[in-house]
Amino acid sequence: MIFRPEKEVNGTCDSVFPVTGSGRSVAEAWAFRMNRLSKFVLIVPTYNERDNIGPLIEALEEEFRKIPYDMNILVMDDNSPDGTAEIVRQAGKNYSNVYLITGEKQGLGAAYIRGMKHAIDGMNADAVMEMDADFSHKPDDVPRLIRALDEGADFVIGSRYVKGGTIPHDWGLLRQAISKWGNIFARYIVGLYKVHDCTAGFRAIRSSIIKRIDLESLGVQGYAFQIALLYKVMASGARVQEIPVEFVDRVKGTTKLGFSDIREFIIHAWWLRFEHSKTFVRFVVVGASGVLVNLGVFTVLINSGLNKFLASPISIELSIISNVLLNNFWTFSARKTKHRFYVKGLKFNVVSLSVLGISYSTFVILNLLLPNLALQIHQVLGIVPAMLANYFLHSYWTFRSSPE
Ligand SMILES: Nc1nc2c(ncn2[C@@H]2O[C@H](COP(=O)(O)OP(=O)(O)O)[C@@H](O)[C@H]2O)c(=O)[nH]1
Ligand SMILES: [Mg+2]
To answer: Which of 109, 93, 81, 16 minimizes the C-alpha distance to 54?
Structure first.
């Protein structure tokens, strides 16, 4: 259901921006660019935020007075049982730029997808913003995000993990771990390593960028939406910029982040990796061929009477050599690295030796702990940690692309 307040308010906005060095007020400088962006829709998803949403709307309206654009708030409320929607309806009577869409609870991502489609197709927004309702994202940071967009970025992230950005100092270890690991997954599993805060829900995005993407096909319901959207916009070549923000812990209400969101996030991260990464698929194929080389050589060597503690590292070494040759000339062949060949060679050797160490120590430990298992099983189990270490070290160090 879409609610539109009937009362119209004249949307004049007195600028409180200081005068810049050039003698032109920032508001004038912004207005200069009005032909590019003019209508903004700030989307706020809510589920049981009755104590936060009223004050947030007030605080945002206060900020909007400093921004010389057509600023609007679209609250996406999933039929919160606590009556959040009623508070938004009341606010809509005072402010003509407050909109509300209610619906069944399907998750944070589903709410954003519906909200963005309505903002762009139904309200003709030039840009949309994402913002939590719980004051974790400070309303007075909104102008900074808009300005970065205005200055040329396509996708601005209010980031906790760039220099100057912060997370709450009293955040529990579990909450910190979820946030940090979410970003580690997004950066190193999905491959978004150029962005430091991939899971942030404080963003300003040009509508033209979202129009390039089929929101319906993102295939996410919950918090995984943040990485799914970021992945697609980066793949489409959007200019992404992070600006530092202080993330404040909510004072009222409770977090809605649930186990099903975390599960969807992890599965989706791997899905994006598999679906889109030719590199990783090639790496897995090369890895499988390495397993065959490793086990084949190992079996031949022990059958010909060689001591198992010698046969193991020799076969590991041979499989590493075959893997790295294939990875260099096939898996990572498209990567342009600025390093000279000998630097790559040196890095390659360091990685190989550590991987050999990991694989061989696993073999020796398993041999001592579980002497009744077949030797081949010890040898294979040694491959698993080695393969992961091998991929990440080579992908993010040896064969890392140089920045353009
Ligand atoms: N519409 C809608 N909003 C949601 C849903 N889940 C969370 N939210 C809102 O999304 C924002 C972020 O959620 P929050 O619980 O603060 O997550 P956290 O900051 O990661 O702990 C808040 O404004 C929530 O009310 C949902 O399923 N539907
Ligand atoms: Mg929150």
So the answer is: 93
Q: Which atom of ligand 1 is nearest to the CA of 254?
A: 15
Best residue for ligand 1 mutational test, from 42, 47, 130 (most atoms within 8 Å of Cβ): 47
Query: Relative to the CA of 47, which ligand 1 atom is closest?
Result: 25
Q: Is 53 in the pocket of ligand 1 (CB under 6 A)?
A: no
Supply the residue whose CA is at minimum distance from atom 27 of ligand 1: 107
Q: Is 132 in the pocket of ligand 1 (CB under 6 A)?
A: yes
Which amino acid makes up residue 382? G
Neighbours of 18 (CB within 10 A): 8
Residue 119 reports pLDDT greater than 70: yes
The predicted model scores a pTM of 0.69
Express each pLDDT in 369-388 by its tens digit: 999 989 989 988 888 888 78
Angle at CA of residue 75, ends 69 and 80, nearest 5°: 165
**pLDDT, tens digit, 9 for 90 and up, residues 156-209:** 999 999 999 999 988 889 989 999 999 999 999 998 999 999 999 999 999 999
* pLDDT greater than 80 at residue 252: yes
Asked if pLDDT for residue 310 goes beyond 50, the answer is: yes
Query: What is the percentage of the chain residues whose pLDDT exceeds 70?
Result: 87
| Domains annotated on the chain, with CATH | 37-275 (3.90.550.10), 278-398 (no CATH)
399 close to 332: Cβ distance less than 8 angstroms: yes
For ligand 1, the distance from its centroid to the CA atom of residue 59, given in whole angstroms, is: 19
